[in-house]
Amino acid sequence: MSFIKDPWLEKLYREAFPPVARIVARLGGGPEEAKDIFHDALVIYLEKKYNNRLSVAVSDKAYLAGIARICWIRKFNQGHREMPFEPGDRRFDIPEDYYELEKSTSHSLLDKLKLAGEKCLQLLRAFYYDQQSMQEIAEKFHYRTRHSATVQKHKCIEKLREEFKKTEQYEEIIA
Amino acid sequence: MRKSLHETGEIERYLQQEMPAPEKALFEAKMIIVPGLQEKVYHQRKTYQLIRWFARWQQKKKLEAIHRSLMNEPRFRESIHSIFS
């Protein structure tokens, strides 16, 4: 799969990965774990950024290091070490459902739904995850008007919702 | 807009907490009365979660590609290896 080059992200990766790798090494992890933790932290950081939930007083590298520590605790080290931050420090918190995707059932569900409607998933991602406006989405996905893109968005939600229901029923039968 | 699409939009406004209190109370009453509506709300909530998972999965693929390309640079690769040696 090819990706559009993103120089900003590449620069951030280049600068922020080594410090996070050092943190993971100190916590006893190896290079693969460092990469995984860094990717988790970066995905969460970007979500915060797009949702305007970043504090300007904290640098991007400090954010990534802070989130990476929390990710490490959640992923590998539950409850074994002291929390590195004060309770109530929400700057580095990670979404509740973040590590649920690692469960195999979530993965198989996602795979089935990708087959059912990747184009719909792309459109819905643009709206709900990337926070693009319906006008931008209409242009990107070649809809004539904002209204027809909105109708399509609802159709997609409906389609995925019904697929989800079917898949879930199927999983219940085979479980 | 089709009736079902109208309903989908209504569920969305409920889940995204965009309904004013009286409308929300009315919708919650409807969920008890209308057969199947509660189930739709449940599955639609899960659908939004799935969109997030899909987006995160795509983001990670993009990051994997950046990782591979940076690790192909000898200096960067060495600087990372030296941390773990």
What does this structure look like?
- The complex is a heterodimer of chains A (175) and B (85).
- Chain A is mainly α and 175 residues long.
- Chain A contains six helices and no strands.
- Chain B has one domain.
- The A-B interface holds A 1, 3, 6, 9-10, 13-14, 17-18, 21-22, 25, 30-31, 34-35, 39, 42-43, 46, 95, 97-98, 100-101, 106, 109-110, 113-114, 121, 124-125, 128-130, 151, 154-155, 157-158, 160-162, 164-165, 168 and B 1, 4-5, 8-9, 12, 39-40, 43-44, 46-67, 69-70, 76, 79-81, 83-84.
Helix and strand layout, with pairings?
The complex is a heterodimer of chains A (175) and B (85).
Chain A: H1 7-26, H2 31-50, H3 60-76, H4 104-129, H5 134-140, H6 146-174
Helix pairs in contact in A: 1-2, 1-3, 2-3, 4-6, 5-6
Chain B: H1 3-15, H2 21-33, H3 37-71, H4 74-84
The global form of chain A is globular
Computed over alpha carbons, the radius of gyration of chain A is 19 Å
Structural class of chain B: mainly alpha
Separation, N- and C-terminal Cα atoms of chain B: 62 Å
Fraction of residues of chain B in helices?
Answer: over 70%
Described by strand count, sense and barrel closure, the largest sheet of chain B is: none
Number of DSSP helical runs of chain B: 4
- Given the structure, what is the number of helices of chain A? 6
Mean pLDDT of chain B: 93
Summarize the structure in short:
Chain A has six helices and no strands. With 175 residues, chain A is mainly α. At the A-B interface, helix 1, helix 2, helix 4 and helix 6 of A face helix 1, helix 3 and helix 4 of B.
